[in-house]
Amino acid sequence: MTAPRDRPHDRQGGAPALIPGELAAREVGVAPATIRKWVQLGRLTAAGRAGRALLFRLEDVFAAERATRRTQRRDGTKTEE
Q1: Are the beta carbons of 62 and 69 closer than 8 angstroms?
Q2: Which residue in 4, 8, 34, 41 has a CA-CA distance of 20 to 30 Å to 71?
Q3: DSSP state of 54
Q4: For the chain, what are the domain ranges?
Q5: Domain topology for 17-74
Q6: 29 pLDDT band (50/70/90 cuts)?
């Protein structure tokens, strides 16, 4: 049985869809600048490009967000995202 075709990860034979940084930021509830900062800090790696825009796997964005939250809880401080 196949999943509905409107889900992003079902495109291209099951490969995850790549989304631009602005949409990625919206999905995890952060500013686009935060996505760029995570890339600078090595917490997130772009999976592709569309022109000048970096593209990300949504699962990677969620993993970076979780890792950032864990670090903040462990340190007990709000760090620069």
Answers
A1: no
A2: 8
A3: E
A4: 17-74
A5: Multidrug-efflux Transporter Regulator; Chain: A; Domain 2 (1.10.1660)
A6: very high
Mean pLDDT value across the chain: 82
CB 24 within 8 Å of CB 58: yes
**38: how many CB neighbours lie within 10 A of its CB?**
25
Question: How far is the C-alpha of 9 from the C-alpha of 67, rounded, in Å?
Answer: 22
Q: Give me the count of residues in the chain.
A: 81
Cα 81 to Cα 52: distance, rounded to the nearest angstrom: 22
Structure tokens at 19: 């989304």
Distance from C-alpha of 16 to C-alpha of 38, rounded to nearest angstrom = 20
